[in-house]
Structures
1.
Amino acid sequence: MIVPLKPLALAKSRLAEAADDVLRPRLALAFAQDTVAAALACTAVRDVVVVTDDPAAGASLAALGARIEPDAPAAGLNAALAHGAYSVRVRRPNAAVAALNADLPALRPRELASVLGAASVFTRAFLADAAGIGTTLLSALPGVELRPAFGGPSRRRHLASGAAEIVVCGVDSVRRDVDTAADLSVALALGVGPRTSRRLTTGAPAPDGP
């Protein structure tokens, strides 16, 4: 599983109405921590590679058990994901790969396993976000290039690229990425992970460990 994370100072600018300039990067880290922890707890996930150049985020996510890969291309989200997929296959040439958004604070391991199970019958597959416009997960079978096209109306681009759209019920937590205050409210109703919850209720730093 490949999770991209931009430098925290640049993250979650659309949350401005819900969080100030101090809280927003801290929330971005808490979202990523809860996302990575849930992915690592998923029985269908062998390991998690986080592609980031943020040293504090990298150290925190490594403490959870993720492998940190520097964003060597430094050419945006999709280049980072392609680089992450390459780094996985350098180590394990026959691995299937999947890219997952870092802002899924309500992510449930069992729901992620259901999505990955549904994806496994397709050469390449993706899950649309809750709005039906973007993408929260993209997968590719062994030997198949990931070809990520995240950002904006990526559902349409992934369909055009030949990826199959995953249609499975009961996986709201995998579709609910958080970009806005409204998104955060819905994620809170689903039930966010402990680090996001702690950050929102106490303002205390989210712990590095599980």
2.
Amino acid sequence: MDKPPISLVIADDHPLILAGIAMLIEAEPALVLLGQAVDADGAVAQYERLRPDVLLLDLNMPGGGLDAIARVRARHPDAKIVILTTYDGDEDVHRGLASGAAGYLLKHSAFDEIVHCLRQVMDKRRYLPPQLAHKLSARIEASALSARELDILAHLSAGKSNKLIARDAGIGVGTVKYHINNILSKLNVASRTEAASVAQRRGLLPTY
């Protein structure tokens, strides 16, 4: 027995992108488009009115995609939501999934990938393209840094030598080297410079 088509509401503030996705969905027998929106308020209203199987929305539309996700899931905890965006930063991926999204797709994704993602989500699975899954994995590894390693990373990112780090942290130079090796491994980088760059990008450094 064939599965019923997956019903969708899509939300994006770019008219051409919205029209293009709508046209592709309407040409796919496995999908049915119930409604469209151009901002967070519209996305929430359309979800409430139409109750689609999946809400497909832009992360950075007016009103904020994250806000729309939070509002929908506050009333409908089982709502299936997929983020469709041009942004692939690991922080964006993390924030989107943490807000309750079940999938994350880039706008240049092939339509076959979009359909595959929707099917995965309907089967109560999360979906991430491989490159985004790698970014999220790297972030999770980074979050495993110990308090001491984060402290050493801050000193390292300030350009300090091992001897200076050892003096300021009150530990031996050998211990500093040990921690730095662990940091490079957990961040999946090959050098101190890369570690400092990743730390800055991921917000791992303290702010004063």
3.
Amino acid sequence: MTTHRSVAPPVHLPGPDAPWEHVHERARATGRVVVHTTWGEWLYAALLDPDLRTILGQDWPRYRQSPTAAGRFTFAVSRMVIKYTAAAVLEAAPADLDLAYQPGGRPVLRGYGEELHLSLAHTEELVVVAVSTGGPVGVDTESTERQASYALLRDQVCTAEEAAELDALPEDERRARFLRLWTLKEAYTKALGQGMRRRFNAVGFTWDGEGRATLAGHAAEARDWSFATHLVGGRYLVSEAHRGRLLEARSRRTPGELVAPFAAHLPAVECPGPGDPAGR
């Protein structure tokens, strides 16, 4: 029987001067941490930081080669957030960390091998970074307002069982459940290091009585994985997949975690967003 483990919600960090000790404490207590922020909250830091070249390190040429100013600064912000988050976990200086990329673009830290796992996702203004010291991690995000065509994507994203369940739902519930399922599969395949190279319709999820996701048809493997979806900023789904021993385990639902089977009322449960002190 699969044991479901509660997953703490993402931490909102509004910039380089945020209280990063909370990130370190979360990682030490649970073995992983997910951070969310926005491009705008970090833009001035990227524009004005005299040490930007040092912080970007070997990513500096890629930053300079971006053909647009918007592209350069969104790239810079995403790499700054990764490095600041990893640095907080490791109690190191961001400029001392060197990012590299595996085939497919997965970020890794040189010199840390399997000791530290990273994942990056972004959509619209939101940036999400996951760092794990306890096994592979993947994170993905989508806006709840995204108008994805279920009819066109159904057979590419869903297993036959998932499609049958979704087909039976009212349209609004189907859309919410489909987006959640999509982000969970993105997060899971990122954690595997496969990303879009693995067919989503080859990965199935089921839901327990409280609406938590678990892998379908792989009882032994399912016990090794933890999944969660949270609502942040009032309009973004953030899903994460974590493989390995999760140190934190609570019997009650973690605030912000979407556990209603169809997540029909997304705004009813959410993590604090930008500007909310409770999210810091």
4.
Amino acid sequence: MHQTGHSPEPGPAAAPAPARPGADLVLGLDVGGTATRALLCDLAGHRHGRAVSGGGNPAAHRTHRAAAALSVALRGALAEVDPRRVGHGVVGLAGRRLLARPDVRAALRRVWQEAGLDCPMTVVPDAVAAFAAGSAAGSGSVLISGTGAIAVRMDRWEEVRRSDGLGWLLGDLGSGFWLGREAVRVTLEALAGRAHAPVLAPLVLTALLGAAGDGPDPAAQPDPGGALADRLVAAVYGGRPVELARLAPLVTAAAERDDAAAAGIVEAAAGHLLATLAAVRRPGERTPVVLSGSCLLSGGPLGRLVVRGIGRQWPGAQVCRALDGAAGAAVLAADALGLDEATLAAMHRRLLAEPD
């Protein structure tokens, strides 16, 4: 197999890199907006170092703060190992346009060098690392629903087609943000007496205003003067739009408690995500589907609906879960060193089966 991707200096895909003498380890990083995870392992899939730090994605944080989080994760994973043993590193990073920024490219190079690393570094979209975390097949599809939502088709480890991933303003249908926004919308409808959300509305009011008991109970009576609705709207507009994603677990929790309004939001989200996936898959295709992101992996009703929908639309396709993006990035780093398919598959099985 041949892993392709994007390096900090944009250019053509790199060929497999020969391993240096003594370079028997690879490094994988999953750089997200809320957490940065680094994993160091050997080519058999044994872990040699692991660390977690704060959000390191420059799309969500100032470049210096993102670089600091990346540095903490790197140094933690390398704490007990000579960095010269690392033959290749792969960084999974959301935000395809980030690498066009000179400050981001410079920060990545600086952090890499300050950690004592002189091996090649490849930066790939987070969806590519997520696919590798769920499947060693190299070709298939990955569907992500976390803060945002996207589906990507993979062919021999290369991203060949994508759907959605347009951000909260233009897309991300079925994402955590989308669920949170719908939760607020339904709560406002309940306060106006036009919807019944006896479980969801109080949860949203408590989360955003501190306590639902400050005003009328939307499950029992409307908000005739609109005071509570005004406070809710002010709270939403007073924060960053993406922060609505933190309400997503409230929607699924309310749906599990038979709140019909919440269940309707979850069903609509599943429909959006399946449509996003269908845009990158052929009808009846049997290649693996990898699910990633907190909204799909939390064990709630949204994930179950999506898995059932995949079974109906693509019977026989294996559904995998991407639980460790850093491990997926490490697999891609090993592939960049030219591992044969059987060895890479064995590494994947050990690495992904081994608990943290």
